[in-house]
Write a structure and sequence with these properties.
This protein is mainly α. Helix content is about 70%, strand content about 0%. The protein is built from 4 helices and no strands. The chain is elongated and about 40 Å long. The two termini are about 20 Å apart.
Length: about 80
């Protein structure tokens, strides 16, 4: 991915982030801003690990869909 593609992808993710609800933003912040492992994300959200993983998968699906809609075809592997 070149610099321009990366810049476009960041803008798309920012736009998708703006559409997230409060709970999704909290999950995003815990996982990607604070860099917490999923068990800590679950604890921070007050949900079970399996619920946190399902919500995380849904969040990744939403972000991937936004990127694809924006024309980004090269994405990092899922964790």
């Amino acid at each position: 991915m070149d610099t321009e593609d990366r810049r476009r992808a960041i803008e798309i993710v920012r736009g998708a982030y703006d559409t997230l609800g409060e709970e999704e933003r909290r999950l995003y912040a815990l996982r990607y801003v604070e860099g917490l492992p999923m068990h800590a994300v679950a604890s921070g959200l007050g949900v079970s690990l399996s619920t946190a993983r399902r919500r995380h998968d849904a969040l990744l699906d939403r972000m991937a869909a936004a990127l694809l809609e924006g024309g980004v075809t090269e994405m990092p592997p899922r964790e």
